[in-house]
Write a structure and sequence with these properties.
homodimer; 225 residues; alpha+beta; Nucleoside Triphosphate Pyrophosphohydrolase; Arc Repressor Mutant, subunit A; two-stranded antiparallel ribbon; 4 helices; 24% helix; elongated; DNA-binding
DNA sequence: CCAAAAGTGTTAGTGATACACCCATGT
DNA sequence: ACATGGGTGTATCACTAACACTTTTGG
């Protein structure tokens, strides 16, 4: 922190971008918005926007997500700040990227004024993205995979009540590898991450699975080293 | 990313701050600078400063470290971006904090124009710090400890040639716990992190220890999960 | 010969992996 | 009765943790 008067400096703009993941239709999906303005008009991009002068970065991330996509109440954490001077062709823009997870069945997407369209895309079949958003999304995937292995973030992708098979599938889809059912259940139970509910799946053409909820103070994210 | 003209917005200032750690005199030290200007004139702070309009965040971090403290060639990674609207009393300042490690014996500290004084402080006995720097330093310590357990960052705190006891001490000081010598050496050797050198310690009043170097392509940081 | 740190192996316990069959339900 | 996923236990392997004595050097 130097003895400069901040106002002497030509200032970069600051944005937040939010990489929102969900698991849906047996696939890992990212939320993208279609840009309605230049630069990169009509191209898909990560939702985001400028940080207001009196809001925190996290508040900005929540606000953008709500405004552009109608999504609220997500697991949210800061991912990384991308500040390459050339990442925006117009001017210097530094972006604090956030990383978010939701259970997709809880809201309806809707577009907004700045945005022509909003949609889920398979992480493994993305369209061309605006700015350096490809790089950002790839970085987010790395972080997501890491978090899956060492924390309980997976639970934020589930509905209130879920089966152990649903939970396991989330791990399998994101980590892109199959897991042993018995070992998986053994571990989940040993860590006491879930609590039995006195209910079972309904309307399935096979033996209905027991339902579980997250156990109390996993509330949010537990490191499971 | 929204359809706004960036120039319409009141822009926050962006700084980088660098938390530089070293291990010295059997203690974990942080580099602090004494501010020569308001706000917080004469108070100790993490080195840092404004990001220039055409330099990347990482370049800014390197530049500030060199300018304010004469330190170069460090291990450097982005830590977190702090953006609370009230963290700077003057105006909105968002700071991208970087986290750095050096072997302290390789350079001479020197103060600069913006800075009255530069010095190493024990991480466990810090003076009062400017801004929200206490919080930032604590966050950096958490990250450092985490990195010690799961990566090979420790090696960036060592000189070219070192003994296994020196290496072990670094772990012990930072993690603040003692480790078993035999198990420690077994693990380091099993992971092939070090290479024997045909030299020994000199001028010590006991059996001289064998010297080692970092093994080839640990070059930088290896995750040791 | 004393002080100081260097160096070295074995055992027990814990957690991870591999693996196959019966069960409950709907059609 | 059959198809579909649900549900369960044991044995092996790998890694971690605990632990004590001998060696080499300088003073």
């Amino acid at each position: 922190m130097a003895g400069y008067d901040a106002s002497k400096f030509e200032r970069p703009s600051v944005t937040v971008d939010v990489i929102l993941f969900t698991v849906k239709d047996d696939d890992l999906k990212v939320l993208l918005v279609k840009r309605n303005v230049d630069p990169f008009k009509d191209m898909w991009a990560i939702p985001g926007g400028f940080v207001k002068i009196d809001e925190s970065l996290e508040d900005a991330a929540k606000r953008e997500l709500l405004e552009e996509t109608n999504v609220r109440d997500v697991y949210l954490e800061q991912l990384y700040t991308f500040g390459d001077p050339k990442r925006d062709p117009r001017t210097r823009v530094i972006t604090a990227a956030y990383f978010a997870l939701v259970n997709a069945e809880k809201f309806k997407l809707k577009a907004s004024t700045d945005v022509k369209d909003v949609n889920w895309f398979s992480m493994f079949d993305l369209p061309e993205l605006a700015f350096d958003h490809k790089k950002i999304v790839e970085y987010a995937l790395k972080r997501l995979r890491w978090k899956m292995e060492y924390t309980t973030v997976a639970f934020s992708l589930l509905p209130e009540k879920f089966t152990l098979t649903q939970l396991q599938k989330i791990y399998e889809i994101i980590l892109d590898k199959s897991l042993d059912k018995r070992n998986f259940r053994k571990k989940i139970k040993a860590l006491e991450l879930v609590k039995e509910v006195q209910e079972f799946q309904e309307e399935v053409a096979h033996r209905p699975a027991r339902l579980y909820t997250k156990n109390k103070k996993i509330g949010e994210i537990v490191e499971i080293f």
